């Protein structure tokens, strides 16, 4: 709007920035109003190290305003998953005379649906005479490559009135062996001149697992989740957020494709988990906008714990840097550390008396570092392109908490993503 | 696209909203929301309404007390403070008390003694402003948001329209105009500029596809005694109407900025002309002798006056 090409005067800059600090000025505080029409189509490719597993995903998200007070969001996703996954861990036995026993296991029930029983019990040296001992642990992968397709869709209807937004959502997800139906209710209330936002939410998911390796069996699982959150604007360049989530799952929580190895009988048997899990999750977030640099810093810390004995910390930071001419770069770093579940061991001597045991590497103690980079280009007012890459490195020794070594399960993955967003 | 237009009175002025939308119900609802917000700000900041926030602040100011204010008021006070600083103390929201003696409908001039008595209670430097606490060092002070309230209301109305997806619209609150995008066919809005010396005529039409236009001048309200015009823009330093410029118009992104630039230029008198040049915004000025000047698109209106 400047009449001349001269740089804006100090006075004009002072007046303009003071004007923009007022609530409700176009560049500041957003009223609770329906979203603009928007369609985003994305593709991502996930690849674990050692060609273990790949996931290809196509997703779309469409937002349509319905009049003045309503909008609807429709999401759809189709994932194609293929590869191998670890099922249990066997100890490797080394003897002083140089012999190595990598015990074959007598019985394995596989996710392919077949149950195979090996031949005679394998030979194994006695472990208690001092000359032979367990030296390391090795993962046994499900050898048959599996492939699954997941199709999921959901909608969310939001109603906006003054400073209040009420949303109702529902959806479903379908796989060969896993069905999930869910719904959610959310309420957001802006108050205190939109400087404070309170959010409460509830969701219910009802899942049915029909494992392919079991006949005439299905397990049901129900998950209730409650969320309470508050966002507080501190100044025109800062806000903080805190969300507390409580989740209560009950039913069939076991992964029937995961086994544990029993040293006493040299067998792999299906794992067994408790029938209930209560999880608490706290997210705290600080966001600072640097007007001079046209950039924003996000700092997140998450703490979670559950009654399976797993507690976890996540620290994440990302930087949104505007590069001008519609380009934007977002580097992101994340550190995650979790302790192990009470009933986790990499393998078991004998079955624990309480009847719960798992060697699933996801319940082990470990840490993970990940880094990501996203590049965005606003091509026109209507079209935006995003391209991203993310690297993930899981290492047993990255964990903060005390835990059994699980370095045999260390792995990494890479995700490449591409998406197009149309505002129309 | 259909045009939805509402006219109403607020802040002592005729107001008009013109919004285009595919959905007439939507345009109507947005119009209603924007107009409600203008009226909300009037109820909140009018110094004429006993139950307004300004009246409540001024009751405290009269005692020389202090109070805590909400975030919106705090931001307005910050803005007013910025204006005070950038105008070297000429733009002063405590100068409203002068209206107690300058009655533009009275036909008489105030006595110097009356003015001097008021000047002792005027000055932003007599206000202690530490967000969120506002204190008055001298009893008998008063604040007046009149110089920024209407422009802020126009910007907020525009923000409400933008957030509701309106991309073609015009907001006119008593001559403070905020344009939201061009007309639906892409052509600019034509905004008529009143001739400050002959209010029944237009200086010309201005083509706007965005931004805000505000004007200030003594044609709006003035006192004429013995052929001499006394404008309604009063200097907080002398207590008398400022002289030098008869009218100023400024184009800016925000109506608030355009409006305070006009007021500051008027307060500066002829000094306002180089100050406007330095600001770098498109503007137009007319001095008491009828000379005109300006820069940018508005300068194009310095030529002949056209009949309506």
TrEMBL record, chain A:
Family matches, as InterPro entries: DUF3570 (IPR021953)
Cross-referenced Pfam families: DUF3570
Source superkingdom: Bacteria
Region (Disordered): 106-132
Low complexity bias locations: 107-118
The protein, known as: DUF3570 domain-containing protein
Lineage: Bacteria, Pseudomonadati, Pseudomonadota, Gammaproteobacteria, Chromatiales
UniProtKB/TrEMBL annotation, chain B:
GO molecular function: metal ion binding; transferase activity
Name recorded for this polypeptide: FAD:protein FMN transferase
Keyword terms of this UniProt record: FAD, Flavoprotein, Magnesium, Metal-binding, Transferase
Stored Pfam families: ApbE (PF02424)
Residues binding Mg(2+): 147, 263
Cofactor(s) annotated in UniProt: Mg(2+); Mn(2+)
Family affiliation: Belongs to the ApbE family.
């Amino acid at each position: 709007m400047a009449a001349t090409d001269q740089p804006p005067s100090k006075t004009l800059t002072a007046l303009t920035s003071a004007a923009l600090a007022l609530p409700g000025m176009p560049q500041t505080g957003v009223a609770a109003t329906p979203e603009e029409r928007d369609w985003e189509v994305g593709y991502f490719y996930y690849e674990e190290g050692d060609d273990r597993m790949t996931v290809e995903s196509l997703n779309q998200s469409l937002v349509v305003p319905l009049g003045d007070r309503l909008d609807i969001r429709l999401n759809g996703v189709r994932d194609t998953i293929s590869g191998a996954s670890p099922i249990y861990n066997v100890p490797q036995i080394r003897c002083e005379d140089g012999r190595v026993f990598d015990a074959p296991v007598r019985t394995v029930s596989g996710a392919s649906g077949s149950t195979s029983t090996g031949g005679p019990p394998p030979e194994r040296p006695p472990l208690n005479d001092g000359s032979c001992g367990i030296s390391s642990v090795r993962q046994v992968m499900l050898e048959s490559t599996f492939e699954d397709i997941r199709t999921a869709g959901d909608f969310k209807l939001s109603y906006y009135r003054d400073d209040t937004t009420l949303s109702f959502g529902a959806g479903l997800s379908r796989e060969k062996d896993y069905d999930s139906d869910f719904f959610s209710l959310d309420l957001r209330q802006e108050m205190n001149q939109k400087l404070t936002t309170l959010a409460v939410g509830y969701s219910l998911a009802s899942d049915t697992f029909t494992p392919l390796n079991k006949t005439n069996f299905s397990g049901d699982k129900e998950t209730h989740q409650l969320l309470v959150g508050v966002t507080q604007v501190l100044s025109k360049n800062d806000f903080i957020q805190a969300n507390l989530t409580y989740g209560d799952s009950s039913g069939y929580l076991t992964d029937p494709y995961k086994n544990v190895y029993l040293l006493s009988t040299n067998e792999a048997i299906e794992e067994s988990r408790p029938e209930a899990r209560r999880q608490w999750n706290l997210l705290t977030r600080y966001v600072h906008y640097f007007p001079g640099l046209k950039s924003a810093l996000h700092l997140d810390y998450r703490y979670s714990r559950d009654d399976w004995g797993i507690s976890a910390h996540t620290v994440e930071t990302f930087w949104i840097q505007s590069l001008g001419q519609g380009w934007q770069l977002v580097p992101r770093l994340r550190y995650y550390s979790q302790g192990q579940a009470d009933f986790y061991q990499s393998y078991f001597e004998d079955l624990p008396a309480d009847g719960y045991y798992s060697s699933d590497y996801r319940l082990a103690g470990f840490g993970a570092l990940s880094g990501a980079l996203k590049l965005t280009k606003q091509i026109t007012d209507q079209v935006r392109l995003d391209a991203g890459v993310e690297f993930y490195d899981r290492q047993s020794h990255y964990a903060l908490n005390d835990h059994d070594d699980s370095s045999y399960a260390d792995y990494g993955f890479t995700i490449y993503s591409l998406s197009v967003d149309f505002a129309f | 696209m259909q045009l939805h237009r509402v006219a109403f009175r607020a802040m002592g002025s005729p107001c008009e909203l013109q919004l285009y939308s595919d959905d007439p119900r939507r345009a109507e609802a947005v119009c209603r929301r924007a107009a409600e917000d203008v009226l909300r700000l009037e109820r909140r900041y009018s110094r004429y309404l006993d139950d307004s926030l300004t009246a409540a602040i001024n009751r405290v100011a009269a005692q020389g007390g202090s109070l805590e204010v909400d975030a919106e008021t705090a931001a307005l006070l910050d803005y007013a403070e910025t204006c005070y600083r950038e105008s070297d103390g000429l733009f002063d929201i405590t100068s409203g008390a002068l209206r107690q003696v300058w009655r533009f409908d009275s036909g008489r001039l105030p006595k110097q003694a009356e003015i001097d008595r008021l000047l002792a209670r005027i000055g932003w430097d007599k206000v202690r402003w530490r967000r969120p606490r506002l204190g008055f060092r001298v009893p008998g002070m008063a604040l007046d948001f009149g110089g920024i309230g209407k422009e802020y209301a126009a910007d907020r109305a525009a923000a409400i329209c933008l957030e509701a997806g309106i991309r073609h619209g015009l907001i006119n609150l008593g001559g403070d105009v905020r344009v939201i995008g061009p007309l639906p066919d892409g052509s600019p809005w034509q905004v008529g500029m009143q001739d400050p010396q002959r209010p029944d005529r237009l200086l010309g039409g201005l083509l706007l596809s965005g931004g805000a236009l505000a004007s200030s001048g003594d044609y709006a309200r003035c006192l004429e005694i013995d052929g001499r015009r006394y404008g309604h823009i009063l200097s907080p330093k002398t207590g008398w109407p400022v002289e030098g410029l008869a009218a100023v118009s400024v184009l800016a992104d925000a109506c608030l900025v355009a409006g305070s630039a006009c007021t500051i230029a008027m307060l500066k008198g002829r000094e306002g002309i180089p100050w406007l040049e330095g600001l770098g915004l498109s503007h137009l000025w007319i001095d008491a002798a009828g000379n005109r000047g300006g820069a940018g698109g508005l300068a194009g209106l310095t030529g002949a006056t056209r009949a309506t």
